[in-house]
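Trying the structure run again after the queue cleared.
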Amino acid sequence: MQNGKLELPGNLSIRLAAAADRAFIEQLYHASRDDLRLLQAERDFVEELISMQQSARSAAYEEQYPQACNFIVEYLSEPVGRVLVDFGQAQVHVVDIAFSPKGRGQGYGAAVMRALQQASRQIMVPMTLWVQRSKPGLRNFYAALGFQSAGGDAMNEQLIWIPDTLANQAARPC
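Done. Tokens:
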């Protein structure tokens, strides 16, 4: 992170979301809800249900994380993902991260997470996030980035990454 800007490799970039990005953010959510498309219901009903859930989730995020920054991840200036991050005084919390189908499996998520880890390291605070227990592949993805379990509940696990500079400081006896 230089001059308050996240540094991403190659042709990746990140910018604050704008009102014009609303349709892209909605498309991202719709693309992630194939589970609801398995319902034995009319297609229009399922799509409306997904839209309602997306609206409710957005409202909940705004209420729980009013200071969070909503970023759009771009590859060659085309939006491929979104990350919602709450930069608190005691932690950097990744509220949500999602990529379009064409942006998945390209290493973009790992690059964004590493950039956020660098920001966390520079401001010397841990980075946290929640992951659904029903997604072990996602849990393994974060483990490969150095995240460890910090508890959770029956549905979700909280993960934490502690910058080495902070961990070394905590290890000192005085």
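The chain has a mean pLDDT of 87. Worth checking whether this holds up in the mutant runs.
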